[in-house]
Specification:
Length: 234
């Protein structure tokens, strides 16, 4: 999967949230978005999964403009993704286990296999102990881990995660980084936003884009073999 932002602009009530942003996201190179609150990170991510359409420029998914997609095509696009939003959006009256189980049912995985894989995924993220709890019984950090587990259960081509460690302590943030690196090693793409320098550095090999006031101001490529990083100032 390749998603291309081609001079994409998003304006709300005439005020630009993103301005003339161009970038290419592929499944073979993880990407980290950094920048202060209000820089445009969430808006950019919403463009990637067609929750927003650009008001200028275009967003292309494998060469097809999201603005020209019908609703059915946009849904099909999202089904190729694992999306972790800041508010998690867990089903409130489902247990953790049932929330994470949902993608397996959508993919038609037999129940016995789905149950086993779901339990393994919860164990990988060290949240087996909350499997029978409801979302309202979880801490903010636990909710984010469950949302990540549900995204991984989609077996997506690309994970899009908006501040997945924003409410987590250092140990739990490291668990998330490890889980994401395992997904990357299995060939899953990743675009993640974060305020955490340590979390960004934990995702070795990632390209780092820094946003400020709706524009990309820094484009840092992964380390080279001799440990140096290549940088472009935009």
């Amino acid at each position: 999967m390749t998603i291309t932002l081609d001079h994409a602009t998003v304006a709300f009530n005439g005020i630009a949230a993103l301005s003339d942003v161009s970038a290419t996201i592929t499944t073979d190179q993880p990407m980290v978005l950094t920048g202060p609150t209000g820089a445009g990170k969430t808006t950019l991510l919403r463009l990637l999964y067609a929750d927003l359409l650009p008001t200028g420029g275009q967003v292309l998914v494998d060469g097809v403009s999201t603005s020209s997609m019908k609703a059915k095509q946009r849904r099909a696009h999202r089904q190729r993704l694992g999306i972790v939003q800041q508010d998690c959006r867990l089903v409130s009256d489902y247990t953790v286990f049932d929330n994470v189980l949902m993608p397996y049912a959508l993919r038609g995985v037999p129940k016995t296999d789905a149950d086993r894989q779901c339990l393994e995924l919860l164990a990988d993220l060290n949240i087996s102990y909350v499997k029978h709890k409801l979302p309202r019984q979880l801490s903010g950090g636990e909710q984010h881990l469950v949302a990540l587990a549900r995204a991984l259960a989609m077996q997506p081509e690309l994970i899009i995660a908006d501040e997945p460690t924003g409410t987590l302590d250092d140990v739990t943030s490291n668990d998330v980084a490890i889980a994401l690196k395992h997904a990357i090693n299995r060939g899953v793409g990743l675009v993640v936003s974060t305020h955490s320098t340590a979390f960004a550095e934990a995702l070795a090999g990632a390209r780092v884009l820094k946003l400020s006031e709706g524009s990309i101001v820094h484009n840092q490529q992964p380390s080279t073999d001799d440990g140096r990083r290549t940088q472009d100032e935009l």
